[in-house]
Amino acid sequence: MGLRRVLLLGEGNFSFAASLCGVAGTHVVATCYESEEDASRCGGAARNIQRLRESGAEVMFSVDCTKLKDYFLAGTREFDCIYFNFPHCGRKAGVVKNRELLAHFFHSSAEVLAEEGEIHVALCNGQGGTPADQPRREWHNSWQIVAVAAGAGFILSDVHPFKAETIHGYKCTGYRSQDKSFCVEGALNHIFTRSTPLLCLTPLSCRIQLESQNISFQVPQVLVDKINRGFLAPNSNHPVRTVKEKLTAGLSQAFPLQSTDSCLSLLHQGHLHGVCPSRVFWITLSPEDTPSTEETSHRLANAVLFSRVDFCQDTDKSVQEGRHSPNQFCLRPSLLPHAQAIIQEGDLLPGTLHVLSGPVFRKCHISPHSLPVFHEMLIVFAVNRGTESSCIQMLVNNIKTTIHSLHQTGINPNISLQEATSCETTELNDFAAFESQLSNIKYFMCMDMDPAGSCVGIIRTSHELISSELVLVFASLNLDLLAMLLCGISDWRMLWTWDTRFLQQFPRGELRLFKSFSLYPPSYVHDVSFWVPHGEPFDEVAFHTIARGVSGEMVISIQLRDTFQQVGTGRSSLCYRLTFQSCDRALSCREAAEMQLRFREEIQQHLGVTLR
């Protein structure tokens, strides 16, 4: 392993650089903006420069931090760490000028920083504009360092106090080595790393086997980066798999168990009883893969067979009457049809838990706990009539014991059963609300750690699918929500990040408290107002889904700000506020504005609205 190359910019008296002399395995390149003659006049500078040179460090003068590649040959540009302590344009330069300096600095640094290198920027208290500043300045009056860095592809990965008193021999100087030094009390060191680039979501075709036929289909834009990620694969160390494996291991100690994962089709054909059509992802097969009328009739008959009335409570008349084309397929929104197939084929063994796992896909509103795709764990078993309540309690107690052994947040999670009849629909998260469409629910399984995502599972029973003596119990768990709550992950999007720093925090088979590698990401607010087609209901879920697709999940919030009905015409106008923010990548103001423009075009084209 070679020497760690460190670049220091804007040195005044070179005392910070001198403090790094003698650090094993480190090669220091110390620079300043002034000429050698001017820099040497600063108190102690000449002595520090001599010390640096004697230790083998490089000392450079008249270096402009906004044009770094001009000073280093191609083979010597990759620095592992770049320090810029207390940058300033000088004199009476305001926040705008200093933001511009930082912006040019970050872009310049991107050309000389190693791929996994770090940039350290020390700022006086309040300048950065992050919540770490105490007191915190108003955003418009700060240097907005996280937004400025994002423009060059960097994210803030750590921030901690700049403790000048702990740096041996360090003496802070002022702008360009002036006698009046910067106030370092409460100063902060901001550590930036490279972000993974924003995804370019190009159209994707997926090929799978449906019964005995290989078919392909176009993946919905919002799911392009989420299909076939393999979170539950045998070689995966993803926390979702760890939660699933731990739960399965706990259940196997108390019950006979059969597990099914890999052979479950991603597609469901025909209508889904009770589910609003706008809440599922409909797909179209490639022309050469479209099944014949005879094949379609056979498959549709099976699809209807798997949706017995005991499971269904229709809320959409068109679905109930079967007016959807039998050729239509959707990405499976639930594993229930697969469980019903096992039952119909007579493969369900009384007393044995049948565990099915895999991703399911649902259109939903945008929120930190609303997941358009998540991994469902469905537990199915048959018990003697009259014993279902005690068996359900045994199951829940087993799950509770496993969860208690897994939690990493320092808070002992409590899982409780809530009667479905006691829960108001408005209190349910998207997961529970969608499950309520599929069929009657007996219990909600809730964790009291976080109200917004507290429902992590549901339990339903059926008395009609096997025999009069047996009762079927279906327990559905949202593995993604469980992983979030157990590991302290506040945003579901982090589970799907491509940044390797996420999985590096989770050794195989272990859950740990997650530490974010992107702190205080900048957010950008945009409003959109439009007229809705007269006499037609506005599909808000489709509105949210379009926002997900065009932004690559960069929209974190959508709020209805205003409604207006025009006198005379009766036309209705809606105004929504979109907040763009990434949880794991650098998102610049310009990129957010471009996403907003595409979003305006898409809703006009697909929802038929008229922009105002």
UniProtKB/TrEMBL annotation:
Keyword ATP-binding carried by entry: yes
GO terms for MF: ATP binding; phenylalanine-tRNA ligase activity; rRNA (uridine-N3-)-methyltransferase activity
Reaction equations catalysed: tRNA(Phe) + L-phenylalanine + ATP = L-phenylalanyl-tRNA(Phe) + AMP + diphosphate + H(+)
Record's subcellular location: Mitochondrion matrix
GO cellular component, one term: mitochondrial matrix
All residue ranges annotated as the FDX-ACB domain in the record: 519-612
Main location: mitochondrion
Keyword Cell wall biogenesis/degradation: no
Any GO BP annotation: translation
Enzyme class: ligase
Superkingdom per UniProt: Eukaryota
Similarity section: Belongs to the class-II aminoacyl-tRNA synthetase family.
Protein's name in the database: phenylalanine--tRNA ligase
Gene: Fdxacb1
